Amino acid sequence: MLPRHVQRLGRDWITHVNGSQVFAFSSPAPTCMRWAGHCPWASFPLPVPVDSSANWRLPPFFGPWRQIQNSNWQLDNFAPNSCFHLPNPSMKAEGEEPLTKKRRLSSQLDSPALEGQNFSEQKEALCVSDSQDERSESNKKRNIKRHWEYFCQHSRTMKILESAETDQSNRECEAKFDFTVMSYNILSQNLLEDNSHLYKHCRQRLLIWTYRFPNILQEIKQLDADVLCLQEVQEDHYRKEIKSSLESLGYHCEYKMRTGRKPDGCAICFKTSKFSLISSNPVEFFRRDIPLLDRDNVGLVLLLQPKFPCKTNAAICIANTHLLYNPRRGDIKLTQLAMLLAEIASVAPQKNGTFCPIIICGDFNSVPGSPLYRFIKEGKLNYEGLAIGKVSGQEQFPRGQRILSIPIWPKKLGISQNCVYEIRQQQKEEDAGEKMEEATLDNTKEIVIASEKLSSKLQHHFKLSSVYSHYFPETGLPEVTTCHSRSAVTVDYIFYSAANDDSVAQPGTEDSLHGGLKLLGRLALLTEKDLWTVNGLPNENNSSDHLPLLAEFRLVER
């Protein structure tokens, strides 16, 4: 028979275990041999069997003494690194908050992460202060490794190659201007909260804007692109933080907000040390008088002047957009794309009749190989009989089965099937003596335009290549630009008009323009498996659900 105080210890201990306490064996004995507040008189750890699991509990149907008697409790089984934590917070995964901390957080936040509610400043301060303690350790453990892929010998600074014996008056200056372009959907905080079901795999503290923005800004600093094309830039964040932060890094910023209730938009920012602004041209895809165009997506087209040391008339057209997401509305996507291409065609012409070099960035909400993607790269698309749900290729089994109408958009949009603005007819003279020949000519033009729009063939005049190949040649696995709880695909792109000697460009682009762009390198993308090793996107270090795309180009102007 055991002494009474030992039996009492057994009864108290069994009651404590049945009260949902947990054993833990992860900490060294010197730091954790303690008996928490329930039994302050017990200054020693109870012996624990070595082969017990961390979450082992005694069966509740045994009596107090019988439990101890049947559990092979011997001091020989006590391991130096095994100890008794009552109560000890159980952790499901390395780096996760203890249960006691979670209860403390949940008592203040009192809801699942982002489930249908806005984040207050108090929540942000709580989560950020908690995250700052763990950020340095997280950075070491969970960091996405991406490398540069180079296609030719170059440096990441501007190169000027001139003849050894220069005669500025008789010889033309040949300049090779190297610059980098980034396309990055930074995930609007408003959209994140409205679509919280996409981020159930993320801890709440990682989804707070005050945690996310420093990470996004740090990425921009590290990648140090000369031109930034950003999507989902929330207007209030742009006005209060983003613009001033980027200007402090030497960027000039142009911004176009969406026209509806969504408070985000597109921004193009460029380093003033490399470029000067010629013109800024926003594009609104919403048209009140056209039912088809009832969505509030936007685009932005800049014409930039590179700062060559020698005098030149070279210019670069940079376009940025975020097309409609809805996989079942391919008709709207194609029309929005046509409107963007028409604006580029009005901005990019040069005096010699060709187009200046063009770069088109953005989130196109379309996958590689889809009809919309092929239209961008090949410059043509016959959409006769094409279902609207198949245009973007986002769904394996498209739900949008309606066939695209011919033409897709109405005549009053003012854009032809060649994706250029139609020449607007001059207003008829009010003079009653207008010549009959002019009226007949006007009628003939209308007939020609009407017959053209009955065609099911779309075209554009830019011969574009994609910076990325979308599949890894060694494994055949697809590259991924966005990864969240629902999907991991490529929807972000950088398209460019290739120079004659660009070996990376697709066949058929050799005659695209005079001079042009040569792709020097790109920041490699990752597979879906790679991204899930860091718990997908967003994560501790990457605070958007998209990866930044980055490419280096060389502009050759003679």
Structure commentary:
This protein has 558 residues and is α+β, with helices and mostly antiparallel strands. 25% of the residues lie in helices and 19% in strands. It has 12 helices and 17 strands. It has helices at 4-18, 29-32, 64-70, 99-109, 121-141, 189-194, 209-223, 235-248, 330-347, 371-378, 436-453, 528-532; strands at 148-150, 175-185, 227-234, 251-257, 264-271, 275-284, 298-306, 316-322, 358-363, 380-382, 457-459, 464-466, 482-483, 488-489, 492-497, 516-523, 549-557. The strands form 4 sheets. It has a 7-stranded mixed sheet with strand order 1-16-17-2-3-5-4. Helix 9 links the parallel strand 8 (316-322) and strand 9 (358-363). Helix 1 (4-18) crosses helix 3 (64-70). It starts with a helix and ends with a strand. The relative contact order is 0.11. Mean pLDDT is 77; it is low at 13-116, 157-172, 424-432, 447-453 and 507-514.
Brief overview, please?
The chain is an alpha+beta fold and 558 residues long. It has helices at residues 4-18, 29-32, 64-70, 99-109, 121-141, 189-194, 209-223, 235-248, 330-347, 371-378, 436-453, 528-532, and strands at 148-150, 175-185, 227-234, 251-257, 264-271, 275-284, 298-306, 316-322, 358-363, 380-382, 457-459, 464-466, 482-483, 488-489, 492-497, 516-523, 549-557.
Give me the Rg, rounded: 32 Å
Task: Give the strand order, joined by hyphens, for the main sheet.
Answer: 1-16-17-2-3-5-4
What portion of residues is helical?
25-40%
Overall 3D form? globular
Strand content: 15-25%
Please trace the helix and strand order, writing H or E for each element.
HHHHHEEHHEHEEEEEHEHEHEEEEEEHE
User: By helix and strand content, what is the structural category?
Assistant: alpha+beta
Number of helices: 12
Low-confidence stretches: 13-116, 157-172, 424-432, 447-453, 507-514
Number of strands: 17
